[in-house]
Amino acid sequence: MGYSAAIAGASGYAGGEVLRLLLGHPEMEIGALTAAKSAGDRLGAHQPHLLPLADRVLAPTTLEELRGHDVVYLALPHGQSADIARQLGDDVLVVDCGADFRLNDAAAWERFYGTPHAGTWPYGLPELPGQRERLAGARRVAVPGCHVTVATLALFPGLAEQLVEPDLTVVAVTGTSGAGKAPRPNLVGSEVMGALTPYGVGGTHRHNPEIVQNLTAVTGEPVRLSFTPVLAPLPRGILATCTAPLRPGATVDQVRAAYETAYADEPFVHLLPEGTWPSTAMTLGANTALVQVTVDPDAGRMVAVAALDNLTKGTAGGAVQSTNLALGLPETTGLPLAAVAP
Ligand SMILES: NC(=O)C1=CN([C@@H]2O[C@H](COP(=O)(O)OP(=O)(O)OC[C@H]3O[C@@H](n4cnc5c(N)ncnc54)[C@H](OP(=O)(O)O)[C@@H]3O)[C@@H](O)[C@H]2O)C=CC1
Ligand SMILES: CC(=O)N[C@@H](CCC(=O)OP(=O)(O)O)C(=O)O
């Protein structure tokens, strides 16, 4: 074992998925596990699927518990990461699954999160152009939001090759685990089961500025985005349907070639064979994003669809992938390519 890792927020969904992946990671030893009101409980009371760790006891989330590890994963509610991260030394790799350090633009942060901006860290989406270089050797990583990962991967190759106008629509159907474990009125079983429900409609969802940030960096032009998330009665998974107007003269062959080139060497992002469309079920538990793209000639638009597991490639898998890059390990170490089916 090369590195020790502490996990803050180990009783939550994101922390639990980080732990599931680290249990299969040959270079990682699992150190402190911390929580807030669950401190003092057995991990097994909150994560019964993580049998090898069931008898570990959750500690309070304090500096004393977290320091002394090579890597600290923060899987805490928004706004809880900055204080802890500030106190951990620069020799520690801190990987934040929350939003605190994702945005460059302090005004956008304050508009969507309503608190002062904590800062900006290297962004944990290795597939974005130039990002692997920024993650190599990093000591701080901001893991993207799950809707942001799926929308960015669905759209960036077409934008990067200037085949579509930066005037985007994204409708992302998402499973309920994206909302975390804390109970919410619209997330009780009888409200969710048998229903599809939009939320964060009309440009109000906090992932809007993060998607725009990523795609503006790719195009170098201002990006207009209409993003609508839809809650679905699934525990895991996001399916994003994304469209953009074709630029004059752009063809379906050029669009397909752009995606083939962008993803040819990617270990975790796969362009499916023509005619096969992604489904969330193809990605469950795997660190994969599956993509398909075509052109709707009557609408004059590119249509790109991507699926991933919000807890794996959408959070914890992205976190471990970025950890591998930051530590100089092979990027794929410990990360599953095979999903669970049916
Ligand atoms: N779920 C997802 O798909 C994704 C989640 N994320 C991000 O990951 C982070 C965690 O989300 P998720 O796991 O879903 O949330 P959960 O509600 O499932 O878990 C939250 C965790 O944080 C702990 N916690 C709560 N308040 C505090 C506090 N004040 N100090 C220390 N620990 C605290 C909880 O402990 P206790 O049990 O004791 O309350 C629990 O372990 C969030 O920032 C989220 O936005 C990012 C991408 C996707
Ligand atoms: C179903 C659901 O509520 N999903 C969450 C996605 C959470 C996520 O990706 O994480 P961050 O909160 O870290 O950005 C949402 O839309 O807010």
From TrEMBL:
GO terms for biological process: L-arginine biosynthetic process. It is found in: Cytoplasm. It comes from the Bacteria. It catalyses: N-acetyl-L-glutamate 5-semialdehyde + phosphate + NADP(+) = N-acetyl-L-glutamyl 5-phosphate + NADPH + H(+). This is N-acetyl-gamma-glutamyl-phosphate reductase. The keyword Oxidoreductase applies. Keywords: Amino-acid biosynthesis, Arginine biosynthesis, Cytoplasm, NADP, Oxidoreductase. Signal peptide: none annotated. The active site is at 146. PANTHER family: N-ACETYL-GAMMA-GLUTAMYL-PHOSPHATE REDUCTASE, CHLOROPLASTIC-RELATED, N-ACETYL-GAMMA-GLUTAMYL-PHOSPHATE REDUCTASE, CHLOROPLASTIC-RELATED-RELATED. Residues 4-136 form the Semialdehyde dehydrogenase NAD-binding domain.
